[in-house]
Amino acid sequence: MRVLIADDEALLREGLARLLRDAGFEVAGLCGDAVSVLHMVDARRPDVTIIDIRMPPNRRDDGLVAAQEIRRSHPEVGVLLLSHHLDSRYAMRLLEEAPQHAGYLLKERVSDIAVLTDALRRIAEGECVIDPTIISRLVARKREEGPLDALSAREREVLALVAEGYSNGAISEKLFLSRKTVEAHVSHIFRNLDLRESPQHHRRVLAVLAFLRSGRHSPEPHA
Amino acid sequence: MPSRQRLLGSGWRVALPAATYAALAIATAAIVARRPDVALAGHSSLRLAAELAAGALLLLAALAARRAPSWVRALLVATAIAWLLAEWNTPGAGGGFTLGLVAYAAWPALLAAAALRGPADRPVGRPEMVLIALAALTAVGVLGIASAFVFDPPGEGCFDCPTNQLLISGSTNAWRDLSHAGLALTAAWSAGLLALAAYRVATSSPARRAVTAPVLAPAAVAIALFAADALHGLDRGYLSNDPTDRALRSLEAVALTCVAAGLAFERLRTRRFRATLTRLVVELGGRQGPGGLRERLARALGDPDLDVLHRRDDGAGWIDAEGRPATLPAGDSQEITSLRAGGRELAALVHRRGLLDDPTLLGEIAVAARLAIEHERLGASRRAHLNALRKSRARIVTIADEERRRLERDLHDGAQQRLVTLAVSVRLARRRHGESDSQLDRELAAAERELNDALAQLRDLAQGLFPAALDEEGLAAAVEALAEGTPRLKPGQLTDRRFSPAIESTAYFVVAEVLRLAHDGDVMVDTTFDAACLSVDVQTASDLGEPPIRIEDRVLALGGSLQAKPRRLTAELPCGS
Questions:
Q1: What is the mean pLDDT of chain B?
Q2: Where are the beta strands (DSSP E) in B368-410?
Q3: In chain A, which residue ranges form alpha helices assigned H by DSSP?
Q4: Residue A172 is part of a domain; what is its CATH number?
Q5: Is A115 domain-assigned?
């Protein structure tokens, strides 16, 4: 798999490149700002691009803007956004337009090569990936008495994994459950939360994410 | 200021001139009675009474014109006295005969000097000075003293005249020439005075004309009448007592009475204006808001554009009633008058041209409105200080915010990036050497955990310093982001509006600080925008404990207000326009 790395910290992108090569990835290129990454993606067509959210020229959300640009111009190129921000709104901004082939991870995950490679593979396959810390914060949010309270502990676990972008198959592997059981959990969860179960799994990620982010127990209106 | 004003004032300044005039009036009446055939008043006691009354009224009016400069008052008193002495150059004058010879023609010159100066003490220009000098020289010098040196009464056929004490050498020709020249000069300076007076009145502003004319006009008439008499006596060579002389003398008495009336009118006008002004100032009372004085003065003076500006405490520049810095207008349409009292500049009045040409009026404003102006000036000065203070506090808030923003960026771009790089390096080291050395691998794994903990702490610190969401997406997004990390914070209705950075950061700070103060239990937040004001309402399940001074400081620094209850805090932040 060909990966492109964009980070303004030279030592970090070099280290990351070595880690990925060791893990069997091909590094298609390295760059240090939000402008050159667009050119490089255009020229080298990697499978996934890893982008730091805060990069020159403005050092605000330039990386996010570049990622959105890549999603629009090259839908087949996956994007993994790395960020120090725990706010779910950055993830939401990245995913809401086109959730497939995209991921949002906290920056410190890059040293955990297992997490990183798993995320890159899932993105390349068209799934979406959201950092578990962000999801666990959302699930832990204080709510008034609502449908979330009606879920069992196991169902909450499944809900979190759905929100992190995992498919039913992946969830059954992770939780050592049969696929049938996971499917039953998922449809029960969606009925309880009054969400529509979409056949496209990244659509259901967005629905769950929006529900969790709203912080209120009123169900999402059916669009 | 005494609470009750006497009509004339008091002391020798009144008693002495009044007594002098009374004594001279009695003496004059006696002189006229002794030789009515040669007196200007003649046999008519009515004419005599009119003469004495005209002088007396002029004297009283001069003494009562307390606002007039003392020079002018002295000249008017002298005019009244000299007016009597015109009867003293007759055989009936006895010992006063010589005084009569010297001073019989002096009163018009004295009156001219007084009238040109005027009751309002206008500055006297060069033409006036020349005229006054010429009049004095003619009246006392030529017609008076010089003529007396050569006037030998018996030689001129006056055998019952008393002795001329000033006689040096009698000479009919010299006396006739001097007298003739004196009369011609009298006519000349009088004509000059009339022209100058007419010019002055015509070119004055209405306000000044209202002060000048009531005295200057009758004085000019009196002097013109005397000049007419001089012209009448020119053929004869001297002033005498034929019916024309006597008729003119009576008219002069009427004119002098009018001068007295003019002075009295001026005094009345001043009093009336002061009463109006005092009433206005009293009306201003204690509850006067900034600018109230301006409106009252504008109404009292009839200039809607009138403005009152105050000196700043440090003397540099001006402020308006609100305490805002102001500059004096430079245009032609408006004029600036400095209002002074007790040698100190109280305020500057910006007004229509010519409105305050009347110095009496100005003096009255300074006296009557002094307290109100001083009061307003103090208020304006206080407001100026407050404005400066408020701006300075707002600046401190802004600077503190910028500093926190900078720190957040530095943490993010510096320490956080370095630690992540370090974590990657440790992971690389583990891959290279950890498999062969399990002890090293364990130690590196521990280091990795430490690094991740440090990163998590740094992230919290950076977020607490200044949440990136606040700048990028505003208050609502930042509060939502805070709630994601702090489950007990429950956002309610949050306005999506954007506000200035200082307002947004202050509102966010209120929420974050309450969250810190309310140690446990839920915290509910609502933000609403209404009437140019952002309202942040925070309710807590537990008591806030310590008074929220830090919150109060920030909210007040932006000119906002804070309502604090044990479990509820409402901050109102004015968002301006």
A1: 86
A2: none
A3: 10-22, 36-44, 62-73, 88-95, 113-124, 132-139, 153-164, 168-175, 179-192, 201-214
A4: 1.10.10.10
A5: yes
Residue numbers of the domain that contains A64: 2-130
B 339-368 near A (Cβ less than 8 A):
none
Nearest CA in chain B to A88: B481
- Nearest chain A alpha carbon to B422: A12
Distance from CA of B548 to the nearest CA of A (A): 25
Per-residue pLDDT of A158-173, as tens digits, reads 999 999 999 899 999 9
Checking ipTM against 0.90, whether it exceeds it is no
User: Is B361 within a domain?
Assistant: yes
- Between chains, do B427 and A18 touch, taking CB under 8 Å as contact? no
**Residue in this structure with the two tokens 């590094």, named with its chain if needed:** A27
CB atoms within 10 A of CB A141: 22
Kindly report the CA angle at B199 between B198 and B200, in degrees rounded to 5?
95
Check: CB of residue B256 under 8 Å from CB of residue B222.
yes
Q: Give the integer Cα–Cα distance in Å for B427 and B351.
A: 82
Mutating which of B420, B472, B520, B526 best tests the A interface, going by the most A Cβ atoms within 10 A? Answer: B420
Chain B interface, mutation test: which of A5, A9, A84, most B Cβ atoms within 10 Å? A84
A61 to chain B: closest CA residue: B472
Whether residue B344 has pLDDT greater than 80: no
Cβ pair A12:B417 closer than 8 A: yes
Which of A96, A119, A100 has its CA nearest to residue A209?
A: A96
Flag whether residue B457 sits within 8 Å of chain A, measured between CB atoms. no
pLDDT score for A223: 34
Please check whether residue B489 touches A, CB under 8 A.
Answer: yes
| Residue in A with minimal Cα distance to B522 | A142
CA-to-CA distance for B42 and B90, rounded, in angstroms? Answer: 12
If DSSP codes are grouped into helix, strand and coil, which group holds residue B556? helix
B459: in domain: yes
Rounded to a whole number of angstroms, the distance from the CA of A102 to the nearest CA of chain B is 22
**Domain coverage including residue B146:** 12-273
Q: How many CB atoms lie within 10 A of CB A33?
A: 19
CA A88, A89, A92 angle in degrees (round to 5)? 90
d(CA B484, nearest CA chain A) in Å? 6
Tell me, yes or no, if the pTM score tops 0.80: no
Q: Compute the residue count for chain A.
A: 223
Q: Are residues A103 and A196 in the same domain?
A: no
